[in-house]
């Protein structure tokens, strides 16, 4: 998960990432959930030239967004601060902004952060403060990393400095399809440990949607969550019928710190 290199513009439809052409022909895509509609800018298909999964909307994000609308919404997220980890284009965060007080989108690749900035500019609603931060899971163990992590806001022209992440108390974390390979599990545990430690006075739960593609990865993920940080997280599958009614391999989990449930 190394940070990408500065981008050099090649055309209106793509950019160069080093020597690799990357598609940035983002289109507005409308997701409809009954009477609720959310527009998000993203690629309609994944790039075949570079593995930037953060440029497209995955099915788990669609499922998680519906879960937010139907089961979290104003009853849970009202007046709360929500952080989405591994946002990609940020569909779940953009849906959550309709209910929460503050929503922070996060990812780590420069190109994805550029896409997040586009969605902060074009898709923000006036009732919520929409922010972003470049949260690199691989750096979570570095001294003072969290304390110095900048949070940005759109000022009408560009993304500008708003605060440092510790100044913003996080109430809920959301995510979707944040683990594809077993190699991502340990960095995920690191970032969750960091976030729960630094926000122990406010952080209530982490909700995420996971679609099982490999049984081994899923099993290791659940095991790692149960053993991580201060005696382990409490992992609870919620709304099984809801998730599997959309995709038989979909799971929605609620993760809390042991002792807080």
TrEMBL record:
Gene3D superfamilies: Vaccinia Virus protein VP39
SUPFAM superfamilies: S-adenosyl-L-methionine-dependent methyltransferases (SSF53335)
Domain of life: Eukaryota
Cellular component GO terms held in the UniProt record: nucleus
Pfam families: Methyltransf_16 (PF10294)
Listed GO MF terms: protein methyltransferase activity
Protein name: Uncharacterized protein
Species name: Halteria grandinella
């Amino acid at each position: 998960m190394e940070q990408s290199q500065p981008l050099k513009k090649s055309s209106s439809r793509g950019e160069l990432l080093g020597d690799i052409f990357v598609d940035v022909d983002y289109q507005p895509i409308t997701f409809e959930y009954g009477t609720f509609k959310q527009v998000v800018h993203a690629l309609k298909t994944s790039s075949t030239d570079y593995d930037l999964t953060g440029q497209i909307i995955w099915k788990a994000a669609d499922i998680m967004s519906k879960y937010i609308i139907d089961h979290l919404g104003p009853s849970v997220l009202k007046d709360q601060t929500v952080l989405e980890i591994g946002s990609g284009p940020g569909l779940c965060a953009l849906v959550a902004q309709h209910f929460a007080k503050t929503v922070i989108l996060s990812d780590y690749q420069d190109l994805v952060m550029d896409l997040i900035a586009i969605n902060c500019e074009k898709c923000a609603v006036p009732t919520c403060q929409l922010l972003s931060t470049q949260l690199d899971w691989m750096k979570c163990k570095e001294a003072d990393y969290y304390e110095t992590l900048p949070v940005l806001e759109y000022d009408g022209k560009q993304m500008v400095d708003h605060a440092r992440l510790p100044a913003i108390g996080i109430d809920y974390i959301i995510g979707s399809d944040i683990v594809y390979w077993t190699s991502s599990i340990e960095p995920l545990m690191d970032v969750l440990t960091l976030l729960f430690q630094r926000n122990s006075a406010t952080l209530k739960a982490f909700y995420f949607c996971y679609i099982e593609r490999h049984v081994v990865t899923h099993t290791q993920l659940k095991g790692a969550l149960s053993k991580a940080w201060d005696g382990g997280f409490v992992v609870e599958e919620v709304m099984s019928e809801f998730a599997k009614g959309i995709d038989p391999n979909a799971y929605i989990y609620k993760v809390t710190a042991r002792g807080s449930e």
